[in-house]
Design a protein that fits this description.
5-stranded mixed beta sheet; 6 helices; 11 strands; alpha/beta; Ribosomal Protein L25, Chain P; Alpha/beta knot
Length: 238
């Protein structure tokens, strides 16, 4: 199986890979002239290519064949989550990418502690790319910077974020809450995940008033990144 690499544009038959991707190919994988690659552009296109030449910071490739164009696989799921700390956020981004989430919006709620700067969000994009290479996903998960709880609900009620809304909230019930399907709704789903300490009562009531359904895990309290993956998987497989 050939190595996979990310390339922003695959429109021409001669393409160039630079920056961190080039460094990985040249200095980690130690690929050479004539080695074969599978390239993807993060928008659904995948091609086979061969390394034609390289410099210290760039890898030039010639496309040898293009895979049959396929409709981009979209799950219709957006996760809106308060960012956990440090490596836990990176882990969450990686796993949500692997299971097929379309978009991750970082959430600023009343109890949110971590507030990644724009530069941090950009760094997380490299995690998305790495996860796509590993799991052979050809569409990048979209990353959106910090958005307030109020603005998320406003976008939902105004249909700028259309779909069914679910909010994760702890429960003492002994059964897993099953998400209810709305026959009138499209396939898009939005999943709200709160920070450590959860949403405030006011935030929870505001989400329910806006039309959100609650979704719970029995008996135990899940950490932010665990809840995001668990409930996203439940919605994707429902």
């Amino acid at each position: 199986m050939s190595h996979r690499a990310f390339c922003e544009s695959l429109l021409n038959n001669e393409v160039v890979i630079d920056e961190s991707e080039a460094h990985h190919l040249l200095h980690v994988l130690r690929l050479k002239l004539g080695d074969r690659l599978s390239l993807f552009d993060g928008r659904g296109t995948e091609v086979d290519a061969i390394i034609s030449r390289s410099t210290r910071r760039e890898v030039f490739c010639t496309i040898t064949s293009r895979k049959a164009a396929a409709t981009a696989r979209r799950s219709g799921l957006t996760v809106i989550a308060a960012p956990p700390k440090a490596e836990r956020l990176k882990w969450m981004v990686e796993k949500l990418t692997e299971i097929g989430v379309d978009r991750l919006i970082l959430l600023q709620s009343e109890r949110t502690v971590v507030t990644p700067a724009e530069s941090r969000v950009e760094k997380l994009r490299s995690t998305v790319i790495s996860a796509c290479k590993q799991c052979r996903r050809n569409e990048l998960m979209e990353l959106s910077p910090l958005q307030t709880f109020a603005s998320v609900l406003d976008d939902f009620t105004s249909q700028r974020l259309p779909g069914q809304l679910f909010v994760a909230h702890p429960s003492q019930h002994n059964t897993i809450h099953t998400a209810k399907e709305d026959p009138a709704a499209d396939c898009a789903r939005l999943l709200l995940i709160g920070p450590e300490g959860g949403f405030t009562d006011a935030e929870l009531q505001a989400a329910i008033k806006a039309g959100s359904q609650t979704i719970q895990w029995p008996e135990t309290i899940l950490r932010v990144e665990t809840a995001a993956v668990v409930f996203a998987t439940q919605l994707l497989s429902h």
